[in-house]
Amino acid sequence: MKKLNTVTAIAALFVVMTVGTLALGIAFQTPPHDHAHDHNAHAQHDHTDHENGDLQGAFSSQTQEYTCSMHPHFRSSDPNERCPICGMELIPVAAGGSDDEFVRIEFSGRSLALLGLQTEPVRRGSAYHEIRLTGQIDFDERALTSISAWTGGRIERLYVNYTGAQVDKNTPLVELYSPDLFVAQQELLQAHRQANQDAPAFLRDSQAMTLRAAKERLRLLGLSPEQIAQIIERGEARDRITIRAPSSGLVVTRNVSQGDYVNTGDVLLQLADSRQLWALFEVFERDLAYIRVGQTLEFALGTAQERLTGEVVSIAPRIDPERRTRTVRVAIEDTQSALVAGSFTRATAKIEEADVLTIPKSAALITGKRAVVYVQTEPQGGEFEARTVELGRRLGDRYEVFSGVEADELIVSRGAFRIDSELQLRGRPSMMAPEGGGPTGHEHHGHGSHDDDAYDHSAHDQNAHIQPSAVAEQIEFDAQLHLEPLFRAYHHMWEALHSDDLSAWQSAAEDFYTEVDAVHWPASFADVQGLLEQGMGHAHHVARIATARDHFFDHSQGMIALAQAGFHHGDLHLMFCPMARRGQGAHWLQQDDTLLNPYFGAQMLRCGDHEGLLSGDGGQHE
Fold it and tell me: Where is the CzcB-like C-terminal circularly permuted SH3-like domain (predicted)?
């Protein structure tokens, strides 16, 4: 009886510490039974024991197990034992049904209201893939006009003598002195006089041919038919010719000055149509599959709210060996925008993918190659079914789905992790442990979505579900910043702290601060820079490793923001320890998935959770 009372007291503690079955009124699907039976005689119906408060019958029928609310994979039959990972007191494991209950879980109406779940149908149709692009604005090469010297000579007068001048069609540009031009005009006048003289029939054909040849020579020297006609009408040869603009445009290049001598074919000026522009975007190899010539792209430039459209004119034939990108030329159709050629720009292009099956990103609980979603079996019902799905591409805020769900099925888009957490605490099969018994390690849903901040699950601190770095939203990827040395120094600090080596941290921190100081940070990175500079200049004065870990927390916030913007090479693992910083929780980055806690070191080296992967672009620029 004394043992039974102890078990009952622990069960009461379980009621206080968790939002499990007692608090939320959750009932797993089991075969129907008669509520009029004797509870003590049928203790295997554990869900009715919870509903009727008959804990004695539920726990006396089998050996009671205890678990850690922070690490549900740990199991013990000793209620007085503590978690070997974090040292917390253990709580009872709620009894469950048979293994075939994995796929379904049922909530009462009140439980659903408390959980705050949101559902939406699986969608088949168009989805949009967003690609972040960097590049610059330039003139459309198809609208460039070169003004060349059709004959050698001297620039007698330069009507347009500065770059940036706007000229209209037929505007005088250059007056050229040319002896060859003077001789050709004399030959034209002489041929014209002979053609108009009375002559035998056999000579008239020869004279007409000579006149045509003289006109053709002048045409090849750059004179228009109108100018040739004016010479004949004037009857006088001149040694100067005025070169006029063949079309309207902006003078973008001036290669000569007044008085210069030029040779035949030299480019004097170059005109461009300022209303016809290209956006030259650098596209990484992984995104080239989404781009094709003739495709229409919709994109926004920089921080501008106005969206532009343009047609992909060409894709560079080769990948840049250093940047690992190909240049994509997009002809901008909106000619009214205040765009300036040569300006650097960032853009987000939306690529439409037609007829794909998609789910919200927040619906998928991902661990490794597995992904689980929860399907609401009936509209407005309280029963949910776990499904393993095969995910494809990330399309904006959605995932492409190859198998596991059908179009129009209702899935949990917000709060799926709360359902899965309940399964873990009850020792039932879940996302992390398909065979039951709690999660298989320190990994949570790999997509890193923390929409469950309102859910106070057991002894988990509320801050376990905050976004790792709020400043990440303030920055954008900048191809001009090369931060790989900074990431290397950060990883060395992490290695020193999880090894409890203060002197190694001091050395690594000095290197880290040196790299921070070497970067030319844009103004928009001020908050990140402030986090990275915490403790700068004082690493050698730090005498307590606890102080070093406080600095590392600030540094991690900045580095996570940079990683979320894609400044690193390859994949980094985002880790979280809910016990760090006196229970407030803290994130950090690792290069591999073997969790080593830098905030506790040997004291709780394995305490924490894997919260996902951050894939980087920065390495592509190195």
Answer: 358-418
